[in-house]
Amino acid sequence: MAFISRHSFGQLISAIDGKIACTHLPFLAAEGGLLTGHLARANPQAQLPEGAQITCVFSGAHGYISPSWYTEPGVPTWNYEAVHLQGRLRWVDDEAQATEILVALSRHYEASLPTPWEPVFNERLVKAIRAFHVEVVDVAFKQKLSQNRTLDDRLRVIETLRNRGDIELAEAMAALLAK
Fold first, then answer.
1. What confidence category does residue 2 fall into, taking pLDDT thresholds of 50, 70 and 90?
2. pLDDT confidence band for 19 (50 / 70 / 90)
3. pLDDT digits (tens, 9 = 90+) for 57-69
4. Distance separating alpha carbons of residues 179 and 176, to the nearest angstrom
5. 111 vs 26, 27, 35, 105, CA distance in Å?
6. For residue 49, what is the DSSP state?
């Protein structure tokens, strides 16, 4: 859940009438392996049944890798980190609990601001959303960080990324290399 705490803007993916639906949302990693969030009631995913199976995808560090950065021949690629969660949707239809979720999300994202806004939500606003938890049943962490390249190539890619200012991706690659 630490990865999701750092990269908490994700995608809620489900099937609706035989079609894939995807909503981009901020999430909070809650205690006990739960994710928390909310949808606008007008969103078709807000009509999913209790316990619906969903997927959540969170992207971390990512970026283009040029073959010109290698010492040996290669092809262009994209390095990335991501988490794919499978879970069950649990609706929070109690107005007081839904308000708590809105307040928690707001406080989380306001915390880094110099003068955080103190959340206050009126009944009309709370009724316009549908709060939820995701009960996580499976987690898959994906990393494609030039693992197939030589040590020299990986070190050159890390150096080039750092020089370009892509520190997060460079650090992810360096951490993997250190393992």
1. confident
2. very high
3. 999 999 999 999 9
4. 5
5. 15, 15, 19, 10
6. P
- Kindly provide the b/e burial profile for residues 75-90, where b requires at least 16 CB atoms within 10 angstroms of the residue's own CB: eeeebbbbbbbebebb
Closest among 49, 50, 51, 54 to 21, alpha carbons compared: 54
Euclidean distance between CA atoms 167 and 179, whole angstroms: 18
At 116, phi and psi to the nearest 5? -60, 135
The helix or strand, by DSSP H or E, that contains position 55, with its residue range, turns out to be strand 53-65
**Is residue 32 predicted with pLDDT exceeding 90?**
no
Quick one: average pLDDT of 154-166? 97
Number of H helices, E strands in the chain: 5, 7
Q: Which residues of 5-21 are buried (b: 16+ CB within 10 A; e: fewer)?
A: eebbebbbebeeeeeee
Q: Which two tokens stand for residue 112?
A: 């880094």
84: phi > 0 → left, psi -120 to 50 → alpha, else beta; which?
beta
pLDDT band at 161 (very low <50, low <70, confident <90, very high): very high
Q: Crossing angle for the helix pair 151-164 and 167-178, nearest 10 degrees?
A: 150
Whether the model pTM is above 0.70? yes
